[in-house]
Amino acid sequence: MNRKLFLASSISSALAACSPIGTALNNNAGFHHFLGSAQGLSEAVIGTHGLAREYPESAISSVYRIDSLPTPTSARYMDLLAGDFRGYRLVVDGAVDRTSTYTLAQLRAMPQQTQITRHDCVEGWSVIGKWSGVHLGDIVAAAQPREDARYVVFHCFDRDDQGTQYYESLDLHQAMHPQALLGLRLNGADVDADHGAPVRLRVPTQLGYKSAKWISRIEVVGSFANIEGGHGGYWEDQGYEWYAGI
Predict the structure, then answer these.
(1) Does residue 245 fall inside a structural domain?
(2) Which terminus of the chain has fewer CB atoms gathered within 10 Å of its CB, N or C?
(3) How many Cβ atoms are within 10 Å of 221's Cβ, its own excluded?
């Protein structure tokens, strides 16, 4: 079982890194079926019961590498950035009994958690950083999800060259994981624009593309089938696994 998980993870990294082997495998339908089966196994075995390893301060990387679509340059985001995000509002809505809106100051005033965890990129590199912020589960619980709620969708400010908006999702159980964080600070300073300011998701139990940057809205839904490409995330709509457990 562990060998299958390791093999799927290793070959996925080769795929993402566009190696010659990965390019050939990417065109193989049988291989994609194998990755899909490994995804289900990984979620069943690891799920949200385990914890990501936490590190000492001495392990923090000197440079926290940037990965993602380019930092947003829309008029809305640039205005927020110029105003030090004083006009930012995080909306939490959807299949909830209590729609909520948070300013950045309100988020900073909530109980904060700190973790030193590793960010593992699907491209094969990793970096360790110290993140502080609000436990995602506290935000979700305060919204009081309805009985039909199943997923938490993160809508973001960034878009690709074709104008497609970045988004990600977790199921409710993953969202309540004790290490799932709405990150506000990185390595002792407010998160900067390139790393996802003012709010980014940190899910250290899954690959880096699940930790969406530049979050503008959190929507609780019963299904994500009608959101963008319908697979639960920007990269998932392009063939990546929805559950990206490490």
Answers:
(1) no
(2) N
(3) 19
Token couple for 75: 């008029």
For the chain, what percent of residues have pLDDT higher than 90?
78
Same domain, yes or no, for 180 and 95? yes
Q: For the chain, what is the domain count?
A: 2
Please state, as a whole number, how many other Cβ atoms lie within 10 Å of the Cβ of residue 123.
16
pLDDT in tens, 92-112: 999 999 999 999 999 999 999
Domain that holds residue 29: 1-45
Q: With 60 as the cut, is the pLDDT of residue 3 above it?
A: no
Asked whether the predicted pLDDT for residue 13 surpasses 90, the reply is no
Asked if residue 76 belongs to a domain, the reply is: yes
**Are 150 and 101 spatial neighbours (Cβ–Cβ below 8 Å)?**
no
Asked if the structure places residue 246 within a domain, the reply is no
pLDDT of residue 67: 83
pLDDT band, residue 48 (cuts 50/70/90): low
Same-domain status, 88 and 180: yes
CB 188 within 8 A of CB 206: no
17 and 102 within one domain: no
65 & 22 share domain? no
- Which single residue is written with the structure tokens 């497609």? 164
